[in-house]
Write a structure and sequence with these properties.
The complex is a heterodimer.
Chain A (H helix, E strand, L loop, with lengths): L3 H27 L20 H12 L53 H6 L6 H16 L1 H4 L12 E5 L21 E5 L1 H12 L17
Antiparallel strand pairs in A: 1-2
Helix pairs in contact in A: 2-6
Chain B lengths: L2 E2 L3 H36 L14 H33 L6 H23 L16 H20 L8 H26 L6 H34 L9 H15 L11 H13 L1 H15 L3 H6 L3 H22 L1 H7 L4 H30 L6 H34 L11 H39 L1 H10 L10 E2 L1
Antiparallel strand pairs in B: 1-2
Helix pairs in contact in B: 1-2, 1-3, 1-13, 1-15, 2-3, 2-4, 2-6, 2-13, 3-4, 4-5, 5-6, 6-7, 6-11, 6-13, 7-8, 7-9, 8-11, 9-11, 11-13, 13-14, 14-15
The chains are: A mainly alpha, B mainly alpha.
């Protein structure tokens, strides 16, 4: 082989092709998407995550939740995401524009979480009691998933919880644990701020809005 | 015409210290990666295993395994094997290889901090880009020094023909910093908006396998097979066509994995087309290797180290076929978000790349250390354990993945899921357990390799230290390379 500059040009061209064709092209097409409203007076979507939910995203990253959970809903007919209640519509590129770190996930060891908040809370505004019950259940699940689902292979996160001596009265945030998992008498397990943030983040995951390019699936009557 | 008397031994001596350092680093990282792989695998069927330790939660041990395997084992192994091949093919000793050693130390310090950061939870959570951004300039600087040596060896070569191995190595040396820098900028430092990040990260995680590890494995196989068999590569003139077809196509094939995702449909369609066209370079490379080996398998298998190369070449063929098969939408809709992704990764990184590199290290290290492997039985043990282990790992992941994908997608005529999610989890557990058995076997094989290597090094330590002090070429009878 005599034309070494040609070799280097070819090597450069090969990588430049896929870089330009995939990354630059997709950046041009969807790299500047903005929030949209379905109708003129509707709020813009997607909404940004703020406060505790935003902090919870950081905990989600630190715990590596994305290695077992996806956050992408396929359209009806491709997979069974709709039938499983994982979303009333498919996710599209615009759904992720507010996220500084997009974690689509590559394996569904556990269920998809795109619409987790909507799924556990329901579409109607939950009562205070219902909300507390959901939060309590989530904390139990994170503390020891096998309490809620005995066959689950999700890892427990006991280090997100603190064992504390009960002083005057139990904390309203204390976990209600079965006898096998409860600490010794006089002690309680309470969520740390990281656990609370993670629960807030999970409950904020909602695909409860439509976009012009992604409408809810219409049920056949 | 003047003559320069350069022996192969002179070339080996020029890379001895840095080569042994990279080899030792590589095997150490391999042991660390194996440990994390085993822990992660066990956690999937015994979720309470080491669960009290935050630094050992699955979400951290799994990325620790990925990064230790690719950046620790993979890159260090590439540095020793491919720099040696470059130097030998160029018939030119590597100058100032002591500086190469310093660059290698920087690289390994960077990767060490990276893996420790992952275990501490300081990670990006993006596959194969988990290390904190502060380490990126460090690693790129170390890599630049190392990569430049390969180019210097090629530039000051004493031979006219350019071999296909050199082409693959040069290409990979160029491609790696490009894909790594682009990914770091667009995903970590100045994240692109929305799913453009995901497109970049899929492009990167696919290409670190396709444009870094795989070309280096192919370069090694193209060098080793004719060397050991004593015959040329069958239809060698096709190898360059295979290279260009690989270079132009393989960077696109990873996009098939975004099928049905929140990205424009053309992205996955392009990936599917590229995945099917990939049959061409795969066929050429497979013909090159398998036709060369045909009729000589018995001779090849007689060599304990060459068995690894044969296995790796077969592993590459299966890996290549998996790219084609999983590019098909009908298959992808089942396998895309499943354990089949892990199977595909294991095929590419272990069954193909790692097995070829094992064979190369077994070939090269005795030349670098002027010694022999102390225990051939350990080499045989390594081969059987690793070979059987990876077959078990990949098979169990494929079965688990297809089970998972098909059951997740199964719906009744009334439009309800057939299987509750926990039922699917229960159906995959036996295969996840089998995977752990596979990793256990692999760990056993790696231990045999590690013991053999350190034993040989300890036996040769005195002459190695003398060489380190002397840093001079011995006088001896030599064969002349004309220039």
């Amino acid at each position: 082989m005599k034309h070494l500059p040609l070799l280097f040009c070819g090597i450069f061209f090969a990588i430049a092709c896929s870089f330009a064709g995939l990354i630059l092209a997709s950046h041009i097409q969807i790299g500047a998407l903005e929030p949209r409203a379905l109708a003129e007076d509707d709020p813009l979507h997607p909404r940004p995550k703020v406060g505790l939910a935003q902090q919870g995203k950081q905990v989600y990253k630190e715990m590596g939740c994305a290695y077992c959970h996806t956050q992408q809903v396929s359209g009806k007919g491709l997979r069974a995401d709709y039938e499983r209640g994982w979303g009333r519509r498919r996710t599209v590129a615009r759904d992720y524009i507010r996220q500084e770190r997009v974690l689509l996930g590559t394996n569904r060891v556990g269920p998809d979480l795109s619409n987790f908040g909507d799924r556990v809370l329901g579409t109607d505004q939950p009562t205070e009691e219902a909300m507390q019950a959901v939060v309590q259940g989530l904390h139990q699940h994170l503390y020891r998933p096998q309490i809620v689902n005995a066959e689950s292979n999700m890892p427990p996160y006991p280090f997100l919880y603190q064992k504390r001596e009960i002083k005057n009265a139990p904390s309203p945030k204390a976990l209600q644990l079965p006898a096998d998992y409860a600490p010794q008498e006089g002690y309680e397990m309470v969520p740390t701020s990281r656990a609370e943030a993670l629960v807030a983040y999970l409950l904020s995951l909602k695909l409860d809005y439509e976009l012009p390019e992604a409408k809810f699936v219409q049920e056949e009557k | 015409m003047s003559s320069i008397k350069i022996l192969p031994e002179h070339i080996d001596r020029s890379i001895r210290v840095s080569g042994v350092f990279f080899a030792l680093s590589a095997i150490t990282w391999l042991m660390i990666a194996t440990l994390f792989a085993l822990i992660s695998s066990v956690k999937m069927h015994i979720p309470g295993f080491l669960a009290s330790w935050e630094c050992l939660t699955f979400g951290r041990t799994f990325p620790a395994y990925l990064n230790a395997l690719v950046y620790g084992w993979g890159s260090n192994a590439i540095f020793v094997v491919c720099l040696w091949i470059m130097a030998r093919l160029a018939k030119s000793p590597l100058p100032y290889s002591g500086l190469l050693l310093i660059a290698g130390i920087f690289w390994n310090v960077g990767v060490t901090f990276g893996v420790l950061s992952i275990l501490a939870g300081n990670m990006t959570s993006v596959e194969l880009l988990e290390m904190p951004p502060s380490l990126t300039p460090f690693l790129l600087f170390a890599y630049a020094l190392i990569g430049v040596w390969g180019i210097i060896a090629f530039r000051y070569r004493n031979t006219e023909p350019v071999y296909i191995s050199q082409v693959y190595i040069l290409a990979a040396l160029f491609w790696f910093p490009w894909i790594y820098s682009v990914a770091q900028v667009l995903v970590v430092f100045a994240p692109a908006r929305g799913v453009v990040q995901s497109i970049v990260s899929v492009w990167f995680s696919h290409n670190i396998l396709a444009l870094w590890l795989t070309p280096m494995a192919l370069a090694t196989a193209y060098y080793m097979i004719p060397k050991i068999l004593g015959r040329p590569i069958y239809k060698y003139h096709l190898s360059l066509i295979g290279f260009w077809a690989l270079a132009l196509l393989i960077g696109w094939t990873g996009m098939a994995n975004m099928y049905g995702g929140p990205v424009p449909i053309w992205i996955s369609s392009v990936g599917t087309v590229a995945g099917i066209l990939w049959v061409l370079p795969l066929a050429i490379i497979a013909i090159n290797f398998h036709q060369t080996l045909l009729g000589h398998y018995k001779q090849a298998f007689a060599s304990p180290m060459f068995r690894f190369i044969i296995f790796g070449v077969a592993g590459f063929t299966v890996f290549g076929l998996s790219i084609v098969i999983t590019a098909l939408p009908a298959v992808n809709s089942v396998t895309q978000l499943s354990y089949v992704n892990s199977a595909h990764f294991s095929l590419g990184v272990y069954a193909s790349f790692t097995m070829v590199i094992f064979g190369a290290i077994y070939f090269i290290l005795p030349k670098l250390l002027n010694g022999e492997w102390p225990k051939t039985a350990f080499i045989n043990l390594h081969f059987i354990s690793s070979g059987l282990g990876i077959i078990i790992v990949v098979s169990s992941l494929v079965i688990a993945g297809f089970t998972q994908g098909m059951e997740i997608n199964a719906i009744t005529s009334e439009g309800r899921p057939v299987y509750p999610f926990l039922h699917i989890v229960a159906d995959t557990l036996p295969w996840l357990f089998t995977r752990s058995v596979g990793w256990g076997l692999i760990a056993f094989g790696h231990t045999a390799f590690f013991v053999n290597l350190t034993w040989m090094l300890l036996k040769r330590i005195r002459s190695f230290i003398q060489d380190l002090k002397a840093q001079s070429l011995p006088s001896a009878k030599c064969r002349t390379f004309e220039v």
